[in-house]
C-alpha cells in the first residue's frame, strides 16, 4: 500500500492505494467527517486481492476528505470550501491519479457523493456501490431516523478536549457505537479511532463538514446506466432499510443486499464475507449485471454476526 498527498483544485488530499495500478480501480468514498481509516486496511487488502490467487486484483483507493486525516485542514468553524467541492473531489482525484474511470463505492455521505458522481460524470463511473445511504434525488416518503439517532443530532454530546488524545479517541468511539448495529466490534472501533486521532492534523476540523451545503444533482437516479449494488444494514438507525430499498428501486437494474447485524456504519468485519464478494463480483472484468431473485431491487443474501 502507498500513502501520498495529491494536489487537487483548492486542496491537498491524502490518499492511500492498495494493489496493482494496472488492475481495475475501486475508489472508496467515506462518510461525513470521516478519515479514510474507517475503510479498514484489511478490507481494502481483501478487495485488492481480487477473486482468486489466479484472477485479477483491484487497485483500491481510499482518501481523507478535506478537513479529515492528513488532508488540507481549515480552522474549526471556518471551512474554505463548499459541499460541491466535497462532491467533486472524487473526479479530481481520478484526474490526478490519471484514471479515466473507477468502480465507485460510497458509504453514507460518501454514498450521496457517489450518486452525484454517477449522475453528473457518468463517463467516470464503471460501477456503483452504495452503502448505508438514501436516494439523493428524492422519491417516496421514507422513515425518519430512530428516536435515539435523532436525539444525537438534537442534543449532541459535548466536544472533547481536542488536545487530549485519549479523550478524542473516546469521542470517536462513542460516535460510532451510537449508530452501529448489534454486530458492533468494540475492539476494532477503538483501534481505528485511535489511528484516526493520531493521524489527523486537527480532529476538531472534521466538524466543518456539517457547515457546508451540497446541492441536488442535475439529473436523476433513473439516468444511472452502470451496474449498481446497494448494501444496507437491517439495523440502520439513521436510514432504516426502506431507504436502501427505495434507492435500489430508483436505479435501473440495481441489486439490493440487506446486511443483518449491521447499522449505519462502514462495513464491519462480520459482513465482509458478503460485502467483499459482492463488490468483487460487480467489478469483475466483463461481469454481467446481477439483480436479486425478484428482479431489480429485490433483497438477496444477508450477513449474520
From TrEMBL:
- Gene Ontology MF terms: hydrolase activity
Domain (AB hydrolase-1) spans 24-264
Hydrolase: is it a keyword of this entry?
yes
Q: Which residues form a coiled coil?
A: none
Location of the region described as Disordered in the Swiss-Prot/TrEMBL record? 64-87, 285-305
| Pfam families, per the entry | Abhydrolase_1
Record keyword Lipid biosynthesis present: no
In terms of superkingdom, the source organism counts as Bacteria
Entry keywords, A to Z:
Hydrolase
Q: Where is the composition biased (Basic and acidic residues)?
A: 64-73
Q: What is this protein called?
A: Alpha/beta fold hydrolase
Native species:
Promicromonospora aerolata
Lineage of source species: Bacteria, Bacillati, Actinomycetota, Actinomycetes, Micrococcales
